[in-house]
Amino acid sequence: MKPFRYQRADDVPTAVAMLAQAPNGAFLAGGTNLVDLMRLGVTTPELLVDVRRLACDRIERLPDGTLRIGATVTNSELAADRTVRRRYPVLSQALLAAASGQLRNVATTGGNLLQRTRCVYFQDLTTPCNKREPGTGCPARDGHHRELAVLGWSRQCVATHPSDMAVALAALDALVRTRGPDGERTVPLTELHRLPGDEPERDTVLNHGELIMAVDVPPLARSARSRYRKVRDRASYAFALVSVAAVLDIADGAVRDVRIALGGVAHKPWRATTAERALRGAPATAERFRAAAEAELAAARPLPGNAFKVPLARNVIVDTLLDLAERSP
Amino acid sequence: MSIVPRAIGTPLDRLDAPAKVRGAAPYAFEHPVERPAYLYPLQATVAAGRVTGLDVAAARAEPGVLAVLTHHDAPRLAVADDAELAVLQTDEIRYRGQIIGGVIAETPEIARHAAHLVRVECAERPHDVVLRPDRDDLYKPLNAARFGRGRGELQNGSPADTALGDVEAALASAEVALDATYTTPMNHHNPMEPHTAVAVWKGGELTVHCSTQGATVSRDLIAAALGLEPRRVRVVSPYVGGGFGAKISPHGYAVLAALAAQVVDRPVKFALTRRQMFSLVGYRPAAVQLVRLGAGPDGRLTAIAHDVIEQTAKAKGYAEQVAECTRWMYAAPHRRTTHRLAPLDLPVPTIMRAPGAAQGMFALESAMDEMAAACGLDPVEFRIRNEPGSHPETGLPFSSRHLVACLRDGARRFGWAGRDPAVRARRDGDWLVGTGVAASTYPSPRFPGNATTIRVGPDGHYTVMIAAADIGTGTWTALTQIAADALDVTVAEVELRIGDTALPDASPAGLSSGINSWGTSVVETARRLRALMESRHGGTVPPQGLEVTADMPDNADAARYGMYSFGAQFAEVRVHVGTGEVRVPRLLGVFDAGRVINPRTARSQLLGGMTMGLSMALHEEGVLDPRTGHVVNSDFAAYHIATNADVGALEAYWLDTEDRYTNPMGAKGIGEVCIVGTAAAIANAVHHATGVRVRDLPITLDKLLRRLSSD
C-alpha cells in the first residue's frame, strides 16, 4: 500500500476544506471498498479524510414525510430501522441482500453509493482498464464480462455498479444532498451515477471534494407496495447478476404508479422508465408486465458472455411486479 | 494384527480445540522470531517469455527495504528440473504469476509497496492456455508420480491407460448406448489459512515454520532445493488451517523465504495473499472427459470407455488419475480408460481433495444416471445391477466393498422409494423439484516413509512421536485414540507429538492415506514397545523408562486386495423456473469407510467433503483469460465457494463395518470419498427437476435459464 496521510474531520465544513487542499485525496467512511482498492494499488490517495465522526448518523422524518438518512448511517442500522422496514421494505431488503453482516456493520450510506465496480480487470493492475487508467483499453468487452453491463455501456467501459442499496433508492426517487467547495446542492439519485461514455473513470457527477451529507427518500403512497429481488450466483454474499427494485401502486386493477430500477445491468442503477411509461394506467396483468419489461430491454446490447441477463431481467421484472400486484390491497 | 477398539470409535472432543478456540494454537506465520523481515514476491505478468529488464533502484531506495532479490542476484539452488522449487534461477517465464523476484523489508506494508515500484521488462512469447480436445500435441503421461514416492504414469503411480476386451465392438453392438462429453473447470483450494513460511537460519541450519500437510516431504524438498542434507533443515507445522492438497508441496514460496532469510541474514516471514494463491500453489486441472457406455436389454453394462484429456503445465508435468475410479466401479467385460495431457503455459496443477476422482466420478456418475434412464431402470437399481464381485480389471477381491449397502441404506434414509422417474414433473410454486443419486469411492492407500517413536516414562506416561499432520481433519485426536488402544492405556496417558521433522518421518496428509499410514506405524511401534516391556521388564516400565522407534511395516495384503472406500450420496434440488437459480435443500450421504476412529471428527470431514462437492457442483470455477493466461476471478468476491446459505440439511452416515486387510485399525480413508460423487448427485437431481442435463461444471443459472425458458 502506498503511504498516505490520514486526517479526521469533526464537522462537514472542515472535511470539505481538508479535501479541497488535496487534489489526490479521498474521503474515508467505512472503508470496506476503498481500503481494498488501496491495498491492490487501484487507488492511491495521498490523503484520507475520515468522515465517520461527522454528525450525519441519524435517520429522521421531516415534516413533509420525507425520510432523511444521514450519510454515515451504517447499512445495518438503515436495514433495521422500523420506518424503513415498514414504509420502504424495498430498501431494507436491498441492504440485507448485500455483502455480509460484518461489512454492513461498517459500510455507510454515502460510501455504499460511491463504491466502485467489481469488474475483475478494474481491480487487477496487471491488465489494462479505461476506468482505472484512461486510454489503456477495456479487456472486459472481449474477455470475462459475465457479470457486466447489457445496457448503456460504451466502447470504453462495460462495468456495472455493484450497489444494491442504490438500486432501491433509485426506485424510491431518492435525492442526494451534498456539500462541496462551492456549497450545497441536491442531486436526484438517478442522476448521481453516470453512464461510462468517453469518461469511464468518472463514476458519478460529484466534483472533487464534494461530500454526501444525506439521502432524502420521499414518502410513498400508503397503498404502494415495494420489493427488492436479487438474483446471483450463490444464495448469499455475491453481487447481483440482475436485481429488481420495484414500487407498485394499484387501484381498481390498474397501475396507478410504478417505479422499477434494475441492478447488475449497467454502469448505474438503471431506472426502467420505458417500462414504467408503458404500465402507468394499464391493467396489472402478467401480459402487460411482460410487454413492458421487453420494451425496456429492447435497448439491451448484451455481450456474448452475459446475454442471459436479458431474459433473466425480463423474468425477474415480471415475477416481482406480479408478486407486488398479488399483495396489493 | 488388529487392535481392540476402546478409545477408537468414541466421539472424543478435539484435543486441539481449547488451544484453537483461545487463539493459543500457533499457526506458522504467528511463530515469534527475533526481528523478522517480511517478503513480498514479484510476479510475471506475461504467460511465456523472458525477463529482459529489472529496474529495482526505486524499490531499493524505499526506506525500510532490506533487499530486492531477482534472478540476477538470488543465491544458486541445487535443483534445476523442478520449475516450482527452482525460484529465481533463470530469466525464463513459464506461466503468468511465476515468481520473478522478491522484496524484503521491515514491514509487510513496505515490502508490498516497494514491490509496486519495481519496473519489469519482458520479451513475451506467444502463449497457449486453452484446453481443447482436438489439440494435436496431446501426449500420454510418462512419469508424473509425485506422491507417496511411487513411480508411475499418473501422479499416484497408476498407469495412464487400461483396456480389457473389445470396447469398440461391444459399444457398436450394444442394445443401449451412451456417448457423452463432460467438462470440469480449474478449481482452487483456498484453505482459510494462506500458505505461509517463516524461515530462520542458525549456524548453517534452517528452520522453516511452514503451513504444510507434510513436514517430512517439505523438509526433503526444501533441503534438496538448497543443496543441504535433510538433517540440516527442520520443518515445524503443528497446526494447519486447511490444505486440501495445496500444502503437500512447499511449492516455491518456502524456498524463496529461505533464500530471502539467507540474503538479509534475519528471519523472514512470508504469507501469500489470496490472489497469489491462484497462481503459486496449484489447482485442480480442468478436464474434458468422453464417457461411452453400452448395455444389454437387461440393463447390464457390456462396455465402459472413459477417455480423459486434462491440463498440465509446460513448466512441470502433472497427470491426474481422472478415470481411475472407472476401473473398479462397475462390472463390464469390455472396458477402457485413457489419460492424455494438454501441455499449457499455465501455473503448475496439483492434488486437490480427491484428485482425479472428484472430476472423474462427476462424469461417470452422471453417465450412469443418463444410462439408467436410457435402460428404463431406477438409478439405484441400475448401479446395484452392475455391481462387480471382484475388481473388474485385476480380478482381485475387494478388501471390503459395501457400496450396495450404502445405496440401499441411503435410499431408505432419504425416502427414495417410489420416486417418479419423470423429469420436470414436480413443482412447488416457482420452483422445480428433483432428486438424484450418485456413488462415491476413493482408494485407501498406505504410503511408505513412516516411523514412530514411543517413549514411556517411569510415571507410565506415554509420548508418541511422528511427523504427521493435522490439517483440521482431527489427527491430533484420532491418532491419540489409536495410540491409546494400541498401548492398552487411556487417552489421558498418551501425549501425541506431530507436525515437526524433529520427530520420526511421516508421509503427508493426502489421498486419504494419513490415518492408514500413521496409525499403522503407531500400532506397530506400540506392539514392539509392549513386547519389549513383556520380554525384558516383566511387563512393567523400568525405572529409567523405555523408548522404541519402529518403521511402519509393509502391507502384503495390498497386492492381494483392492482397497477402496465407498459411498452413496443423495441430493434434493430446487430450480427456479424463471431464473435458473439452484438450491440444494437436502444432501445425504452414507459411507463405507471401514471402522471409524472418531465419529465426531469423521462426521466433520464427511460434511465438509459433501459441502465442497456442492461447491464444486454449483459454484467453483477458475476463469482463465486466454489472452493473458491468468485466472481473472482470483478473489473471494469472484471465485465463489458455497456459503452457509447455500447448504441446506446435510446428513452423513456410515456403515458399521471394519476392513480386515487395510490396517490394524480396520479403517479406510474418509477425507476424499465424501467429495466424490456429490457433484453428480446434484447434476442428476437438477436433471430430474428440470429435464436439463448439464455436463459442464459448475451448474450456473445461465446454463439452465437458456434451456428452461425455451418452452
Molecular structure report:
The complex is a heterodimer of chains A (329) and B (711). Chain A is an alpha+beta fold and 329 residues long. Chain A is 29% helix and 20% strand. Chain A has helices at 12-20, 34-40, 75-80, 82-87, 89-96, 101-106, 109-113, 165-171, 189-192, 273-279, 286-297, 309-326, and strands at residues 5-8, 25-28, 47-50, 59-61, 67-70, 175-180, 183-188, 211-217, 225-231, 242-251, 254-263, 270-271. In chain A, the strands form 3 sheets. Chain A has a 5-stranded antiparallel β-sheet. In chain A, a hairpin with a 2-residue loop joins strand 10 and strand 11 (254-263). In chain A, helix 11 (286-297) runs antiparallel to helix 12 (309-326). The N and C termini of chain A lie far apart (55 Å). With 711 residues, chain B is an alpha+beta fold. A 7-stranded mixed β-sheet of chain B has the order 3-5-1-12-9-10-11, with helices on both faces. The longest helix of chain B has 24 residues, at 514-537. Chain B is globular and about 75 Å long. The A-B interface holds A 1-3, 39, 41, 118, 120-121, 123-127, 139, 142-144, 146-147, 231, 233-239, 241, 308, 311-312, 315-316, 318-319 and B 45, 109, 112-113, 116, 430, 578-581, 583, 618-619, 623, 625, 627-628, 630, 632-635, 637-638, 640, 642-646, 700-702, 705-706, 709. Chain A: This is FAD-binding molybdopterin dehydrogenase. Chain A: Keywords: Oxidoreductase. Chain A: InterPro entries: CO_DH_flav_C, CO_DH_flav_C_dom_sf, Diverse_Substr_Oxidored, FAD-bd_PCMH, FAD-bd_PCMH-like_sf, FAD-bd_PCMH_sub1, FAD-bd_PCMH_sub2, Mopterin_DH_FAD-bd. Chain A: GO terms for molecular function: FAD binding; oxidoreductase activity. Chain A: Pfam families: CO_deh_flav_C, FAD_binding_5.
